[in-house]
Amino acid sequence: DAGVIQSPRHEVTEMGQEVTLRCKPISGHNSLFWYRQTMMRGLELLIYFNNNVPIDDSGMPEDRFSAKMPNASFSTLKIQPSEPRDSAVYFCASSFQGGFGNQPQHFGDGTRLSIL
Amino acid sequence: SQQGEEDPQALSIQEGENATMNCSYKTSINNLQWYRQNSGRGLVHLILIRSNEREKHSGRLRVTLDTSKKSSSLLITASRAADTASYFCATGNYGGSQGNLIFGKGTKLSVKP
Fold this sequence. Notes:
The complex is a heterodimer of chains A (about 120) and B (about 110). Chain A is mostly beta strands and about 120 residues long. Chain A contains no helices and eleven strands.
């Protein structure tokens, strides 16, 4: 079975450029999560969707960050304009929430983003 | 906000030894989960323990949960070099709707052959 697929795996770009990260969740999952991981701050939840609807974006650092989920099989995280402090590994995860309790999340292998 | 806090931050053991990692949390939970992260990869779910359970086993993994102390432990028995990874606890909270989990900062385990 295909897991969560993220692209690109690595991205190096200059500050000020627009960056778009992509995620394909596991088919049938109804929740999707975007995380950022750095040595200093650990794993931070940026935003999550349920049934394609953004539920909580309080973790989005600032207006330069935006996320969309136009359908159940695709999501994007966009940074515009990018800054060096955005350098991190960005993970997408999905889960199926159908009953009581928080279900296990399935993670992609991340996008390693470097802003020069 | 940080919920789970793992202890120790780093652990180095010899192959064959047992490894114990601890997690403390702050608010009421509906379950607690442990994940593993190998270098350069995403997190992988290992085991889930519900708030009404006290102990759970999966292969060489043993997880305990003490809701009165708001703590959990992960024991890996007979460790192998392939167990070298970072281990995270994550909590699902009452009122944390739609599946949100809160992750700790992890324990980095190194198993020397």
